[in-house]
Amino acid sequence: MLSTIMGLFSLKVLIPWILAMIFGIFVGATPGLTATMAVALLIPITYYADPRAAFAMILGVSFTAIFAGDIPATFLRIPGTPASGAAVLDGFEMNKKGKGALALSVDLLGSALGGLLGMFMLILVAPFLARFALKFTNFEYFWLGVFGLSMTAILSRGKIVNGFISAVIGIAISTIGIDITTGYPRFTFGNTNLIGGISFIPVMIGLFGLSEILKNLIKKEELGAPTIEGFGKLPLLEAMKTIWNYRVRVLISSTIGVFIGALPGAGADIAAWVSYGAAKSTSKNRNEIGTGHIEGVIAPTCANNAAIGGTWIPAFVFGIPGDTITAIVLGAMLMYGLRPGPNIFSESRNLMNSIFAIGIISQIFLIPLGFLGIRASGQLLKLPKNIIWIGVVFFSIIGSYAINSNVFDIYVMLLAGLVGFFLEKLDVPLAPLILGLILGPMVEDNLRVGLIKTGGNFWPFITRPISLSIIVVVFLVLFGVNIISFILRFFKGKNNESNKSIS
Hints:
By secondary structure, the chain is an all-alpha fold. Helix content is 75%, strand content 1%. The chain has 2 domains: 2-463, no CATH class; 464-503. The chain is built from 22 helices and 2 strands. The mean pLDDT is 79.
């Protein structure tokens, strides 16, 4: 094993590994460019590389891109990648309070720790967790989507009706395009650009990024002022203490990330939202999460990097991709003679050990490279607001276009920006809309396919053990906290009455 690790530090592995991770930071920090895109661009290069270098590049770029997406999310309220959507909520609020450096320092350490825990869980529980993930059918995936949508109640900041409206708008947008069961186009109005549906990345860029620029323009602030002020040294020691104080949340969020990542098709973005919702519903600081609390930064960032390790579990053990990145990588694995399956750990032990070591060492590399990425972004954002906003609009247009190489997506982004601006004016939260847009197809497709399987009988959706367990969790998320607080208030009132009668 030691010789395997030492072999990774040869120049033919180390140089492309570091360069790929630097490339991942650039891709992640650019709104609209995704980790999937970064991996897809690197795959042709890996054809000519050593297999260890190839997997080092792929894993390295995945981890850095997912982390770097939180940089513009914190500074500019624009998620760099889909997995950074949840990072906007508390990270940007902390930045407005002058704590952006602390938020990103905690984010960096949380990403590395989440990735480490994800890799260790991959090593320890891959076969078991993959077997459990295979038990998920359309019935379980339907309830998993419902569970994700139940987070809208948590993300609504006490405005349940407004959050529900936002989620419904997102779900409605998700129905545009070809109906997966009938093949019939829905709500396309004869426009061929809508046949493939609405991509949620341009929508997310517009909702969070462009709407924020419009808000600032309305305020008529000093355009020549720096975009961020007072960004000095990164408080890494304070970030370490913060991570230690919230070590239980780090562990819980990482575990959620690995589990969600292990479910084929779920991925890091859903893992981040579910973890954020879990923190919002169970934390003793639940009322502060969403207003700029550090626990709201820790939860999604640990989960989305841990989810990367989770996505490799079904890919290695059964050859089933956990997300789009592993779907691309499976092709590369076959190219190198790796045949995914239960025997991969014995038949290709040396290469598998190399992959595990790469995943762990990448988290160590992530800290200094992420540190440099944050510092570079912080210095760049000291430029006047008018220059930065022009740059943000430019990269938002480029990022929206790059997804499908379609100008129509630019119009979608611009429209989403206007919609986001007016929704916030009406005090309607934006996060549930994104959640509805992401999870809408998952809920609808699995519901309809499940009903086709059962001939229209909904009973199997309820009676299967895993489905029933998820239903209980959904019920607890929606009503459990309120019921517990009601019981506590009831007994507190009783105690107060008893004390009054005694006195």
